[in-house]
Structures are given as structure tokens and as C-alpha cells.
């Protein structure tokens, strides 16, 4: 019987290594880069709020809708796209969705006003939800059984890489060449990915189309339900504050605007370290790993208005923030994959929906607070919401023991 801290896959007998072709591994990499592109596209505005707002003459809170809108749309499209497309070959579905992403970024680059730009973000949301929901279980169809754990980690690594590298790199490009150039580069990357998917992916007919009853049945899985609660709280709290980390660093810590892109890149480097550390830790003790992440993430935000009032303090807390959030995706993904092995596409669709809904909610709450109360309050609220997750850990532990 598997428990929360002894993943089910560790109890399975070792399998004989079967050869996975090089083309199959390239296909896995193309899916991972696709995930990286989508998540980067969703969160890239975080590092460009000030420049976009100035260029299109909207407030930073209004510019935050660039994160809120695709998050809401992705939350809807994640469960709907798999149901609507039915038995459509997943290869052509993924290629089509990535084509929409390339077009959406082109519209963003050419947008003459904020309204047109926001419309392009709707297309981004459709692509994120549909692509991510389908891609979650593709490792099982692309590689041999013995290679599935590595392939799955690589695909989901695209999420972590986007969170810790995509936004800082995009911000750096935007700072050097303008925000439209940053989205143009993203559009070129999306086009390259769609070509790679078309060339490398085999035919992927739907073996088990997702249905509404199957989606609803996932809420009866205690492990899945607990993971969704944790996802909602952590992601909402993080995005409420992190969406406005750039203006906070400038206004609270006194950091020069020209240094923001480099600091966010440092956040990304810290996140990579956190991702690898958490990845090694979750297989040994998932509950303990999540506890450390929650406490560190909440502390970084709650302490920012107090200890972040100097450049040194702000930078130190940003590094802690990056370390903690770098481990979030791998921990939550491990949780969901563990407790829904037989309904991966359905559970993945629900998880993606909640993840993106939480991104939208966090950005929206942060925007309302930043515009109507005080900028530093977003850090208080974000940290408090993340800290609430600690109260769910006993029930998560209980759910884990009862899940198998």
C-alpha cells in the first residue's frame, strides 16, 4: 500500500530496459519545449508590466489583465478541449494549438492598442489549456515503459523551466530591445515548435476520449482533490504577489529599473536550484518537501514589506522566493501523477484548469490591491494565502494514506 511519503512507483519491481528511439526522445523534447513556450507566453507580461502599461497608456493593474485573461481562458479550455475534440488525433491537435499560439504572439507584436493586445491573450489562453492538458500524459505513448518516468519528468520540466527561466529571459529581451521584440521572439519559438511537433510526433489517435463524467469522477479521488486544493492556494498566493514583483523591487527596495531583468534572471537561477532539490526530495518525503516549500515561499512574501526596504534585503528575499517556487511545480506534479495513474488525461485537464484559474485569480487580486490599496499589500496577501496551505497538510497526509 502506497502512502504519501512512499510513492507507488517506487514499490514496483524494476523493469527490463527497453530501447527508446532517438526520434522518440526528440519528440518528448519538442513537447517539453512546447510546454515551456506556452507557460512563458502566459507569464511573460509579469516582467513587462511597466513598459507595456507606459506604451499603451494603461495602469499597471490594468496591464495585469494580460496575465489574468489567458489564465481564465486556459482554465476553461483545459477540460473543454479534450472533451470537444473527442477522438481527434492528438498530434494534429497539438500542432493546431501551437499554430494558434504563433498567430496570437504575432497579433500581440502588432497590437495598436490594449484592447487588441488583450484579444490576442484570449488565444494564448485557449492554447495553454488545451495543449497542457493533452501533453501531460504523452510520455506513456511516446517512449518505452522503462523510459516513462524520465520522459514524464522532461515534459513537465518545461513548466518549471518556463517559470524560472522563460519570464526572466523574456524580460531581459524586452529590456534590451522592447516588449514587442520579446513577444516576437516567443512567436518565432512557437512556430519552430509546431514544425518540430509535425515532424517528430507519431500519429496519436485518442485511445480513451475524455468525457464529462470522467472529469467529474476525479473529484471523488481524495488524493487528486487534496492536490487541487494545494495547487489553488499556492499558485493564487504566489501570483498575487509575483505579478507585481517588478514594481515592488523598484518602489520598495529602491532597485533601478535597468536591473530588474537581471534580478528576475537571478530568480530563475534560484528556481532551477530549487527545482532540482525538490525533485530529489519529493521521492523520499513529499509531505515534508511541501511543508518546507510552503513555509519558505510564504516567508519570502510576508517579510518583503519589512525586510525588503533595502536593495540587499529585497534581493535576498527574491532569491529565497525563487528557491521556494522552483520546487512547486515538480512537487505538485508528482502528487497528481501519483494519485491518478489510470485517468491521467482527465486529472491533468482538471489540474491545468485549477492551476491556470489560480494564476488568473492571483493576478486579478494583486491588480485590485495594487491599484486601490497599497503595492506592498500584495505581498502580505500573497504570503497569507500560501501559508493557508500549511493547514491542509494534515488532510493531504491522510488523503495520501487512504488513496491506495
Automatic annotation (TrEMBL):
Main location: membrane
SUPFAM superfamilies, sorted: MFS general substrate transporter
Extent of the signal sequence: none
Entry-linked CDD domains: MFS_NepI_like (cd17324)
GO molecular function: transmembrane transporter activity
Annotated Gene3D superfamilies: MFS general substrate transporter like domains
Membrane topology note: Multi-pass membrane protein
Pfam families in alphabetical order: MFS_1 (PF07690)
Domain Major facilitator superfamily (MFS) profile: 27-401
S-adenosyl-L-methionine found in the keyword field: no
Cellular component terms (Gene Ontology): plasma membrane
Protein name from the UniProt record: MFS transporter
Amino acid at each position: 500500500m502506497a502512502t504519501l511519503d512512499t510513492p507507488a512507483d517506487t514499490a514496483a519491481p524494476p523493469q527490463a530496459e527497453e530501447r527508446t528511439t532517438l526520434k522518440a526522445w526528440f519528440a518528448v523534447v519538442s513537447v517539453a519545449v512546447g510546454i515551456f513556450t506556452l507557460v512563458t507566453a502566459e507569464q511573460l507580461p509579469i516582467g513587462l508590466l511597466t513598459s507595456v502599461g507606459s506604451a499603451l497608456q494603461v495602469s499597471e493593474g490594468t496591464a495585469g489583465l494580460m496575465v489574468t485573461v489567458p489564465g481564465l481562458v486556459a482554465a476553461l479550455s483545459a477540460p473543454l478541449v479534450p472533451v470537444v475534440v473527442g477522438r481527434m488525433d492528438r498530434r494534429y491537435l497539438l500542432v493546431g494549438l501551437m499554430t494558434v499560439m504563433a498567430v496570437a504572439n504575432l497579433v500581440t507584436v502588432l497590437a495598436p492598442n490594449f484592447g487588441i493586445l488583450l484579444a490576442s491573450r484570449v488565444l494564448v489562453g485557449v492554447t495553454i489549456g488545451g495543449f497542457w492538458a493533452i501533453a501531460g500524459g504523452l510520455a506513456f505513448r511516446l517512449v518505452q515503459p522503462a523510459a516513462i518516468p524520465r520522459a514524464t519528468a522532461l515534459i513537465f520540466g518545461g513548466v518549471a523551466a518556463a517559470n524560472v527561466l522563460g519570464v526572466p529571459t523574456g524580460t531581459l529581451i524586452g529590456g534590451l530591445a522592447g516588449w514587442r521584440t520579446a513577444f516576437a521572439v516567443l512567436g518565432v519559438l512557437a512556430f519552430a515548435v509546431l514544425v518540430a511537433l509535425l515532424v517528430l510526433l507519431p500519429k496519436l489517435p485518442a485511445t480513451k476520449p475524455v468525457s464529462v463524467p470522467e472529469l467529474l469522477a476525479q473529484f471523488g479521488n481524495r488524493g487528486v482533490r487534496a492536490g487541487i486544493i494545494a495547487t489553488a492556494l499556492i499558485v493564487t498566493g504566489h501570483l498575487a504577489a509575483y505579478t507585481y514583483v517588478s514594481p515592488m523591487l523598484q518602489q520598495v527596495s529602491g532597485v533601478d529599473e535597468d536591473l530588474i531583468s537581471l534580478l528576475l534572471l537571478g530568480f530563475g537561477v534560484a528556481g532551477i536550484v530549487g527545482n532540482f532539490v525538490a525533485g530529489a526530495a519529493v521521492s523520499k518525503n513529499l509531505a515534508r518537501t511541501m511543508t518546507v516549500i510552503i513555509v519558505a515561499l510564504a516567508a519570502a512574501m510576508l517579510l518583503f514589506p519589512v525586510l525588503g526596504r533595502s536593495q540587499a534585503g529585497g534581493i535576498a528575499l527574491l532569491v529565497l522566493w525563487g528557491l521556494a517556487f522552483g520546487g512547486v511545480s515538480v512537487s505538485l506534479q508528482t502528487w497528481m501523477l501519483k494519485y491518478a495513474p489510470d485517468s491521467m488525461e482527465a486529472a491533468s485537464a482538471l489540474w491545468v484548469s485549477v492551476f491556470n484559474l489560480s494564476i488568473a485569480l492571483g493576478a486579478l487580486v494583486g491588480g485590485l490591491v495594487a491599484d486601490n490599496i497599497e503595492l506592498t499589500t500584495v505581498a502580505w496577501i500573497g504570503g497569507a494565502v500560501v501559508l493557508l496551505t500549511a493547514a491542509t497538510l494534515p488532510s493531504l497526509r491522510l488523503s495520501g494514506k487512504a488513496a491506495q
